[in-house]
Design a protein that fits this description.
Blueprint: H1 7-12, H2 18-21, H3 29-32, H4 40-56, H5 66-74, H6 87-98, H7 108-116, H8 138-154, H9 170-182, H10 186-198, H11 206-218, H12 222-234, H13 240-253, H14 257-269, H15 278-290, H16 298-305, H17 307-327, H18 335-341, H19 346-355, H20 364-374, H21 382-394, H22 398-410, H23 418-430, H24 434-446, H25 450-462, H26 466-478, H27 486-498, H28 506-543
Length: 544
């Protein structure tokens, strides 16, 4: 019986430290507020958690980050009862959670024993009972209860010990789970699978883990279905995505709350050979939320509802990015303007894009890399940015080539390497990317190759890159690489100004115009002088 575990003695002895030694999910919430130390009442609360765990087949609050458990439990959050659990049993562990006056250390064990005897033990799968259960007498039932409880008291799903009345012994824990499994207990199957998968009390063996997970899943244990879904997703198994989705869906439909979230994500992303289904995704997100799922998915629901707005914002950002690489910054256009416009929505935009690769038609990796580089919706990370640009470049993205070259040239997220920068700039330039042509011109200018610098400036300027118009004008004005040509300099200065170039060049234009006028006047005077000289020469010839 449960009393044989020594719990009755522990509950009647002096206050124990067993609760403090346990994991957070088992701690009496009053302890979090320093209203009660780990005394007998705390032990009663923790035993109530263990009683719930026996029916669920897994540790409490698995879908809450450990750092948030104390806060949520302190605010009154409790696990929901498992479908099919007898009401008397549910009432029992809830009384333990509330530490009702009628539940004391003296009568707790007898209450537990009498309550458990009133119903079939295999409650986790009410629809599919093991045939052997009908043949169990009271003695065998008592032993089966011991098998399960002893295992749960020794080990949780992560291989950590609860240390509730017993010392940590993973091998002993595995032994009890094995006994329970051999007797056909659904939770025993699952826990043996956990042991094999995580190497708890036994050498890791993924194949055996799958076998035992499958045994428990076939009987309808939700957490086993959930773990199978994760197993298929994370391992290279035939039809892994479809099978994974099917297990998520089955456990979600049976009421397993974490699976409801993953089903929503599957529909949201078009995962498991399913087409994206906004309606289904929203339905499952809301079901997860209604069932008190522990993750805050308010933004994800908003994103699902407001998806057209997010897609519109992303497409606008992509178009502005492309425009930046085509014409560059002007008085009326700056790529940073669009990032500033959507700054308040940046986190949602970034997360949505990360989860929905098909939300934009092209340049997905480049946009993600740019978000990391700019710290848009995510913490600025140059190395992560470089990684995404590199992926884009490997896929042949023209903008990926350029951004990778820029990273190498400036040492952004990678060690500076001008040779590699030149290589990637040229790849982008050969495909006609204006900003790459301009940067190549800068590269050759820095390396004193005037002819190539001027050639790339002029090519990008003719392609419409506004900034290059100024550089071409300046080259003609000072005679850089080419003979000085004030008229062409004025033409390109005016082109720059007409296209709203960022720099104020009115004085430069005025100065060039004056020089051109002076040059024109000088040319006229020279021409007139030549004509007069020619006329005088002809007059002298006629007098001879």
């Amino acid at each position: 019986m449960i009393a044989d575990l020594g719990l009755s003695k522990q509950l009647t002895d002096t206050p124990t430290n067993s609760i403090i030694a346990g994991v957070v999910g088992y701690i009496d919430p009053w302890c979090f507020e320093n209203k009660r130390s780990g005394d007998k009442k705390s032990d009663i609360y923790s035993l109530g958690i263990l009683l719930w765990e026996i029916t669920s087949g897994h540790s409490p609050y698995m879908d809450i980050g450990e750092q948030f458990i104390s806060y949520r439990v302190g605010k009154g959050h409790r696990e929901n009862s498992i479908e099919g659990t007898p009401p008397d049993y549910v009432g029992l562990y809830k009384k333990c959670w509330n530490v009702e006056p009628k539940i004391t250390s003296k009568n707790l064990i007898s209450i537990i024993t009498n309550t458990i005897k009133t119903f079939d033990w295999n409650i986790s799968s009410p629809k599919e009972k093991n045939d052997n259960d009908n043949n169990l007498d009271d003695t065998e039932l008592d032993r089966l209860v011991d098998d399960i409880v002893k295992g749960y008291l020794k080990n949780n799903n992560n291989g950590k010990t609860k240390s509730f009345g017993v010392g940590k012994d993973e091998k002993e824990s595995f032994k009890w789970y094995d006994i329970a499994s051999k007797k056909g207990d659904i939770n025993g199957h699952f826990e043996i699978g956990e042991c094999y998968y995580n190497g708890i009390g036994i050498e890791k063996d993924s194949i055996k883990a799958l076998e035992y997970y499958q045994l428990a899943a076939d009987k309808g244990l939700n957490i086993a279905l959930f773990n199978l879904a994760k197993y298929y997703y994370n391992n290279n198994i035939s039809n892994k995505f479809t099978t994974s989705f099917d297990y998520y869906k089955k456990s979600a439909e049976n009421g397993y709350v974490p699976s409801q979230y993953y089903v929503a994500k599957c529909y949201h992303n078009g995962y498991g050979n399913k087409k994206r289904n906004k309606k289904e995704a929203l339905e499952w997100f809301r079901k997860y939320q209604e069932n008190d799922g522990s993750w805050n998915i308010t933004d994800e629901i908003k994103d699902e509802v407001n998806e057209p707005e997010l897609v519109k914002a992303l497409n606008e950002i992509v178009e502005e990015y492309k425009k930046n690489n085509d014409i560059g910054t002007t008085k009326k256009f700056d790529f940073n303007y669009i990032l500033e416009k959507y700054k308040s929505q940046s986190t949602r935009i970034f997360n949505y894009l990360k989860d929905n690769q098909t939300s934009i038609q092209q340049h997905y990796e480049v946009v993600i890399g740019t978000f990391y580089k700019e710290g848009f919706g995510v913490k600025k990370d140059d190395k992560e940015s470089f990684t995404w640009y590199n992926t884009a470049s490997q896929k042949g993205d023209i903008n990926g080539h350029f951004e990778l070259g820029k990273c190498y040239y400036n040492g952004i997220g990678v060690e500076k390497d001008c040779k590699k920068a030149l290589k990637y700039y040229q790849q982008a330039a050969e495909e006609g990317l204006n900003i790459a042509l301009c940067n190549l011109a800068e590269y050759f200018k820095d390396n004193e190759d005037k002819s190539k610098a001027f050639g790339y400036y002029k090519k990008s300027a003719k392609g419409g890159f506004v900034q290059s118009c100024y550089y071409v004008a300046n080259c003609y004005n000072i005679g850089y690489s080419k003979k000085r040509n004030i008229k062409k300099a004025l033409t390109w200065f005016e082109e720059y100004q007409k296209n709203d170039g960022s720099w104020e060049i009115s004085e430069e234009i005025t100065k060039v115009e004056k020089q051109l006028t002076e040059y024109s006047d000088q040319k006229k005077e020279t021409s007139l002088s030549k004509r007069l000289s020619l006329k005088s020469s002809r007059s002298s010839s006629s007098n001879l």
